[in-house]
Amino acid sequence: MVVKVLVELSNKNIDRTFDYIVPKTLENDIKIGIRVKVPFAHQELEGFVLEISNCSEYNDLKEIIDVVDNDIILNKELLELGKYMQSTLLCTLISCYQAMLPKALKAKNGVNIGKKIDTYLTLSNIPFTKITTKQAEVINFVKTNGRVLKKEANLISTSSVKTLLKNGVLIEECEEVYRLKHDSDKCQKHELTCCQQDAVDKVMSSENKSDVFLIHGVTGSGKTEIYMEIIENMLKKGKSSIMLVPEISLTEQIVSRFKKRFTSDIAILHSRLSEGEKYDEWRRIAKGEVKIVIGARSAVFAPLSNIGVIIIDEEHTDSYKQDSANPKYHALDIAKWRSSYGSFPVVLGSATPTLESYARSEKGLYTLITLDKRVNGQNLPETIIVDMNKEMKRKSGSFSKKLVESMEDTFSRGEQVILLLNRRGYSSFITCKNCGYVSKCPNCDITLTYHKSSNTLRCHYCGYGTKLDVKCPNCHEEAISTLGLGTEKVEEELNKMFPDKKVIRMDYDTTSKKGSHEKIINAFQNHEYDILLGTQMIAKGLDFPNVTLVGVINADTSLNIPDFRSSETTFDLLCQVAGRSGRGDKKGKVLIQTFNPEHYAITYAKNHDYLGFYKQEMSIRRTLGYSPYYFLTSIKISSKDYEEARDISNKIGVYLKKNLLKTVVLGPSVAAVFRINNVYRFQIVLKYKKEDNLYKTLNDLIEHYKTNNNIKIDIDFNPIHI
Ligand code: ADP
Ligand code: ZN
Predict the structure, then answer these.
(1) CATH class of 631-717
(2) Is 193 in the pocket of ligand 1 (CB under 6 A)?
(3) What element of type H or E holds 210?
(4) Is the C-beta atom of 223 inside 6 A of ligand 1?
(5) Which of 219, 223, 224 to mutate to test the pocket of ligand 1 (most atoms within 8 A of CB)?
(6) Domain 194-371 class?
(7) What is the pLDDT of residues 487-521, one digit of tens each?
(8) Is-same-fold flag (194-371; 631-717)?
(9) 2-105 in CATH: which number?
């Protein structure tokens, strides 16, 4: 028997299978999709069996060393999916398979996580004579409980347990346990409104078709309830479901609604699980022990069988696109592929769909379902724009008079406030008041961010960190000051303005510990705090009925980043955060502080007018030739050698212009962050409507440079940001 093995080594040069002979003793264990250990150029590597055959075109084959696991890791569907990803994303096949699996199943990470086993003891029928008092105590313990954990019996006497096992009085049984416990308090489900039922019916009528639905529903219109009903319908038909959420820890409340409704049928995959917990959850899914998977981006690869639906909540969220590592896939493309493989619908939901998705629904490629009313019958909150150009002349600090007054009003009614500090594109950097020196990362072209709690400056790209020194390294005056507006600084201001009100902060620093999101949310829910102050992470999914005022401290920061999606991200953020106000039966209000009160992203958000925004933004995208009118592809060329990076980038630019006649080739130019960790980066952007030559040209390019280890070429199709 011969197997074709794809080894776990992500190198363009060896991205193909190698043939190995299977020794007779292992033949029975070999299946397609399992992992094996093989000799490979003087080392031992793990790899996946992709094919089994009787012969090979090569001579002198080596033997596989062992089988790593008995279970199939990559089923037929995932094996196919990997090939699709490789051919459309132009990355290595092994990187595609690795992206589908939890870390614990990747050899090269060296994480060695096994199943967690509990050992139990029971009594046998073997009669016992001549026993010690301790042994009698152990026997008694087992007898009264029927079956006990060995480690508990060991507490009485380890040596007695050992002896009793040896002479057969006790029997040992091993059982696998999962690390993650799932609670099981069932929750009441709501009677659906007509609109909700209608949406459910539409999706269910496409049960065996690979249709895509776009649910465009304002915040609070009952989308989550619709998802749950669809999933329950699928469950009744014996089908499984995947639901993607932007980031589990940010959607704690939604996830707990699902947990309560579906109890043991559900597996949760998220970044805060330990590797062991992830591994267990993954295997519960693979073994068919669960029917519902909720998770962030990579949960789209969940090895479920008989899928009925894949739902993508908050589909406009950019974390659905992997943009830092290869393969740079979008979860939506993977969902669509699986949907046509398995013939089932995909459901997208958002209050602010991406322009791309909404345009597809206008073209009839997706079925649009619109929900324009909140379930509770409340209007969307009244929104007021505060022109900070006028405010700042009167008063300094981050709070306008209007916002302070509205907060006082809210507190006087015993209600709560959420404040958003828009951090996107913003960094609280430090500068010297004497000479203007700004501290930068020594490895990257980026200013360092000040972290007050640790009094350090940190680079968010490479992780470099240093203590803050008030003495300027340039002019040696003690004039370093922290500029800008971090959540900590705003918190200080709040404490001064409202000394008797309690503020809780939710940002990167306060949520880095496991479970800290949950704690903050619960404490705020229980009204232990009056103000929730946070960054982007408070904008999504939270549902607090007692919050009637949302204040946006600085709407502009995300408008100012040089990116063609900056208006869209700002509009989305404002709509999302506004949606946190007035969700119960009380009327809600939103205050947006801005220096650009006339900007369309802000005025349309004020009026909750998605369609108005959509039309205006589409016409801008058309004029400037951006997505969704044009496809974009970004090519990054990087090297530690500045001249080599520059020269090769120029060559590639010429090559692309010659071969892609229907494409606009922009660049090469230096990348947004030119130097990261001392690697120089150039970028070329391709813009096209239809380009038949694209894949061949890019493939040839990769082929050409694959043996040059100094240069890295990274291709990103439909990048989120450029
Ligand atoms: P969305 O996901 O669109 O923001 P949700 O599904 O979270 O909306 O619904 C908003 C609120 O209304 C939630 O508190 C939810 O429990 C409640 N809700 C949803 N559907 C119904 C219904 N049919 N009857 C009563 N309450 C509902
Ligand atoms: Zn750095």
Answers:
(1) alpha beta
(2) yes
(3) none
(4) yes
(5) 224
(6) alpha beta
(7) 777 888 899 999 999 999 887 667 767 778 788 88
(8) no
(9) 3.40.1440.60
